[in-house]
Design goal:
single chain
């Protein structure tokens, strides 16, 4: 087994595990990306070096994307449709 096949197997196992989690967990993980998006840009106001700002932005933005894609993976297409319909119903009221 080469390295590429190993990582593909690990990725598939991780994806399967994430998809086995509940809808509620998916929504919570998806909502966790919001503070990291805010922090990734708000840290630019800190009085630190440009290099430190770049490192912080990369880490925080990367965490935001990780939570976003992790949450979407947990929800799956059916969970996404369910969440979308829930917000749509609230607007119609």
């Amino acid at each position: 087994m080469n390295v590429k096949d190993y990582f593909i197997g690990v990725f598939r196992k991780l994806k399967h595990w994430l998809q086995s989690l509940s809808f509620r967990t998916g929504v919570i993980v998806l909502l966790c990306c919001i503070p990291f998006y805010i922090l990734s840009f708000a840290q630019m106001l800190l009085p630190i070096s440009v290099t430190a700002k770049g490192v912080l932005w990369t880490i925080l933005f990367g965490l935001a994307k990780t939570f976003q894609y992790g949450g979407l993976t947990i929800l799956g297409i059916e969970g996404y449709k369910r969440l979308k319909n829930k917000f749509r119903k609230k607007r119609e009221r």
